[in-house]
């Protein structure tokens, strides 16, 4: 249950990268995140979904303080990160930890795993060496790793075990928020459920708020309270998970939901195929950014960008025709 207190929020956040001309690419401004506003309440699991290249990971790094936005504000407990004192910002960084997508490259191969997990405690000078080791061994046991592995190196572990190490490292400074960036996409299917269930167990045990980034809507349906759908850097739909799966209000969400694997029956709906490829974030289409791939697009969609609006209680969408297409 959540107490409805907003613990982390983004207000009109944008992130752009300047690309230099190379033999393989042209110069330009890449818009990775475009005017995103969202809120994470205490105890909530918020999902962020979309195709590869839509800006999910960049948004996750901005929310966790690993990257600064070009525009907009990130607020922790109501305080703007840009206006925080150095001490307050250090506290925020400890309270907001990230679990990375690739368990193979996110761990220092030259460090023993006990030292990797203990690093946040060393940085903050928490306790003595003996108490830190005891805390790390307890964390290792909590995430399903034998404390006997303390002095081993990352290359001695499987992908699933490495992700458990990453989870233990994120839990070490006793955070309030964890941003999990595609935490199971690099793992075998047989291991994914174990890591997802571990994250949910840790969320309850440590009273965490969780941002869960994934392209897999079936995973988000299982773990999230709310889901935001991203397309070309922008939020195009946001709703409680159960409402989104009952009746989405945006054509892009409709296509994503249709692509979720399911057991086929005679009455199963036909998949909604998207036209063309994802446009380049170097040249975002005018008007509705989805109109180049939308089977419902009309002339207004080419020229006028729809706002993200409340279409019904607890459900937002950025589509000119949500009421006609999905609410009629």
Q: Topology of this protein?
A:
Layout: E1 6-19, E2 28-41, E3 45-49, H1 56-63, E4 71-76, E5 79-80, H2 86-95, E6 96-99, H3 113-123, H4 129-142, H5 159-171, E7 177-181, H6 189-206, E8 209-214, H7 217-223, E9 226-231, E10 234-240, H8 241-246, H9 251-258, H10 299-303, E11 309-312, E12 315-317, H11 322-326
Parallel strand pairs: 3-8, 3-9, 6-7, 7-8
Antiparallel strand pairs: 1-2, 1-4, 4-5, 9-10, 10-12, 11-12
Helix pairs in contact: 3-4, 3-5, 4-5, 5-6
Poorly predicted spans: none
Give the radius of gyration: 21 Å
Written as H for each helix and E for each strand, in order along the chain, the element string is EEEHEEHEHHHEHEHEEHHHEEH
Number of DSSP helical runs: 11
Share of helix, binned: 25-40%
Average pLDDT score:
90
Strands of the widest sheet, in order across it, are 6-7-8-3-9-10-12-11
Structural class: alpha/beta
Strand content: 15-25%
Our measurement of the CA-to-CA distance between the termini, rounded to an integer number of angstroms, reads 33 Å
Shape: globular
Largest sheet: 8 strands, mixed
């Amino acid at each position: 249950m959540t107490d409805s207190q907003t613990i982390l929020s983004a207000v009109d956040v944008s992130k752009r990268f300047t690309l230099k001309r190379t033999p393989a690419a042209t110069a330009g401004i890449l818009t990775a995140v475009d005017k995103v506003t969202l809120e994470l309440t205490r105890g909530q699991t918020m999902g962020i979904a979309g195709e590869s290249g839509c800006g999910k990971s960049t948004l996750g790094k901005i929310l966790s303080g690993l990257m600064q936005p070009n525009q907009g504000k990130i607020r922790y407990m109501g305080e703007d990160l840009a206006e925080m004192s150095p001490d307050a910002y250090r506290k925020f960084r400890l309270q907001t930890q990230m679990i990375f997508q690739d368990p193979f490259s996110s761990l220092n191969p030259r460090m023993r795993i006990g030292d990797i997990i203990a690093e946040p405690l060393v940085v903050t000078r928490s306790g003595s060496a003996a108490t830190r080791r005891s805390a790390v061994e307890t964390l290792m046991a909590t995430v399903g790793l034998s404390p006997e592995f303390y002095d081993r190196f990352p290359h001695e572990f499987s992908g699933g075990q490495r992700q458990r190490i990453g989870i233990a490292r994120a839990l070490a400074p006793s955070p309030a928020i964890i941003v999990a960036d595609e935490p199971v996409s690099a793992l075998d299917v047989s291991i994914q459920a174990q890591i997802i269930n571990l994250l949910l167990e840790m969320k309850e045990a440590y009273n965490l708020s969780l941002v869960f980034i994934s392209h897999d809507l079936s995973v988000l349906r299982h773990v999230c309270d709310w889901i935001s759908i991203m397309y070309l850097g922008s939020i195009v739909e946001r709703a409680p998970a159960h409402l989104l799966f009952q009746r989405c209000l945006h054509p892009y969400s409709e296509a994503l939901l249709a692509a979720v694997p399911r057991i086929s029956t005679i009455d199963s709906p036909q998949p909604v195929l998207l036209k063309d490829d994802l446009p380049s974030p170097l040249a975002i289409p005018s008007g509705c950014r989805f109109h180049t791939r939308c089977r419902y697009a009309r002339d207004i969609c080419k020229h006028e960008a729809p706002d993200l609006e409340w279409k019904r209680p607890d459900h937002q969408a950025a589509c000119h025709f949500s009421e006609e297409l999905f609410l009629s």
